[in-house]
Specification:
Elements (H helix, E strand, L loop, with lengths): L11 E7 L38 H23 L1 H4 L3 E3 L1 H12 L4 H11 L8 H14 L8 E11 L6 H11 L2 E5 L4 H14 L16 E12 L10 E6 L5 E18 L2 E7 L5 E8 L13 E14 L1 E8 H7 L13 H4 L6 E12 L3 E10 L11 E5 L4 E7 L5 E7 L3
Parallel strand pairs: 1-13, 3-4, 10-14
Antiparallel strand pairs: 1-5, 1-12, 2-16, 3-5, 5-13, 6-7, 7-8, 7-10, 8-9, 9-15, 11-12, 12-13, 15-16
Helix pairs in contact: 3-4, 3-5, 5-6
């Protein structure tokens, strides 16, 4: 099955569906509401004060673990021929939310594997600690930079003939502000209701997540939307028609944006990188230009050879694409064999013995232009000041394959990771 395909913009959706049996809902609920983009207020003051998120040492370890999981996925993609070729985009933090929700209803072995991903192998973190950080991030990340539109949403759909345990439902409401609804599985109506919710919570970037009616009894979803202008915008008058050298040796005609500005620049063993901040610098895109256009395996190396603030002449193409990842294919390759498939145990969701998760699918879209970036992710589980200093000049031309990360600055949490091989 295809791990990624390129199309449009930046969205990432996390959805999770669990197979369950059982005995009916006593309290039907209405379909989750669909938000309007105007509901996310963005003040005119571009340089409003930043709000930093304060983390405990244990919470910092959780962020490190989630970012590491993102890098481990990258390593699997780059080392597996069937996954490697093509544009890639995924959201480590959306995976975190989907897996964390699952942990609340997982049996011991399955829960242990999930906690090692979201909490770290040696942290000793429990589900309550994971839920606590997730609740904090839901409440505080959107307030970090008021120029950035950032929205998280979590949804739960329960088939009319099925049920979830009260303890699971209470944890979802308390920690994840989850929006719940009844639906009819294996119907176009059910598919339409879930797709409408995902489209609304990704502000139209992912309009049709489910291509066929879901046959699972329970569907869990996380949706993430990111939209922001660059702190220093590219001027459209400087955009030119130029060539982009694709990974397969072909060339594409692209709209190449350009500007010269002061940015953080670094050189590692395997790449050069710059950081392009958004809004008030609470979020940034890190761009990586590998030494070898066909080797992205060690591109995120922490071994910095040279770094500092530079006057950087940047060239970057406008780009937009869509990407998809089947986490249920990736997880076993990372040694996590109890999270999906028949050996998965989510009996704490339904009360039924060994309730398995049949699939974890994430869809993503991104759009980058002179003004800024829009990105979204859905996961469905089926469950820098001038001080008079002289700065060196650097050219950073993205006219061949490159990679990028979108990160929240105060915690270092990675929202999106991706690479562009072909335009």
């Amino acid at each position: 099955m295809k791990i990624y395909s390129h199309i449009l913009k930046s969205i990432l959706i996390s959805t999770f569906a669990v197979i369950g049996t059982s005995c009916g809902n006593d309290d039907p609920v209405t379909n989750p509401p669909v938000p309007d983009d105007s509901e996310i207020e963005v003040p005119d003051d571009r340089f409003a004060p930043l709000v930093e998120i304060t983390l405990t040492d244990t919470e910092k370890e959780q962020i490190k673990a989630t970012n590491l999981f993102g890098r481990n996925i990258w390593n699997i993609i780059e080392s597996t021929p069937e996954f490697k070729d093509g544009n890639v985009l995924y959201s480590p933090i959306s995976f975190r939310y989907a897996l964390s929700m699952l942990a609340n209803g997982a049996g011991e072995e399955t829960k242990g594997q999930i906690l090692s991903i979201v909490g770290g192998e040696k942290s000793g973190i429990d589900v309550d600690g994971v839920n606590g950080l997730n609740k904090k991030l839901l409440e505080e990340i959107p307030a970090v930079d008021t120029k950035v539109k950032l929205a998280f949403a979590n949804g739960l759909w329960i088939d009319k003939a099925s049920n979830v345990l009260p303890g699971f439902a209470e944890a979802m409401t308390a920690s994840y502000n989850i929006q719940s609804a009844e639906f009819e599985k294996a119907t176009e109506k059910g598919r339409g209701e879930i797709n409408t919710w995902i489209s609304g919570n990704t502000f139209g970037l992912i309009p049709e997540f489910l291509e066929t009616p879901p046959v699972s009894d329970i569907v869990l979803a996380n949706a993430l939307y990111f939209g922001s202008e660059w702190r220093n915008k590219f001027e459209e008058k400087n955009t030119r028609d130029e060539k982009f050298g694709n990974a397969d040796g072909s060339e594409a005609n692209v709209k190449m944006m350009s500007m010269t500005t002061r940015l953080y620049w670094a050189k590692t063993d395997n790449a050069e990188t710059i950081t392009l901040p958004y809004g008030n610098t609470g979020f940034a895109m890190e761009l990586y230009r590998p030494n070898d256009s066909n080797d992205f395996s060690g591109i995120f190396s922490d071994n910095i050879v040279e770094s500092g603030v530079r006057n950087v002449s940047v060239k970057m193409p406008r780009f937009e694409y869509e990407s998809e990842i089947q986490a249920s294919q990736i997880l076993p390759l990372l040694g996590y064999d109890k999270i999906t498939g028949n050996d998965a145990d989510y009996s704490g969701i339904t009360g039924e013995d060994k309730t398995p998760a049949t699939a974890i699918l994430q869809k993503n879209r991104i759009e980058v232009d002179e003004k800024g970036t829009k990105a979204a992710s859905a996961t469905v589980v089926m469950i820098m000041g001038d001080n008079g200093q002289e700065y060196k000049n650097v050219n950073f031309f993205l006219d061949r394959p490159f990679a990028f990360i979108i990160r929240e600055s105060s915690t270092g949490a990675i929202l999106f990771m991706g690479k562009v091989e072909k335009l």
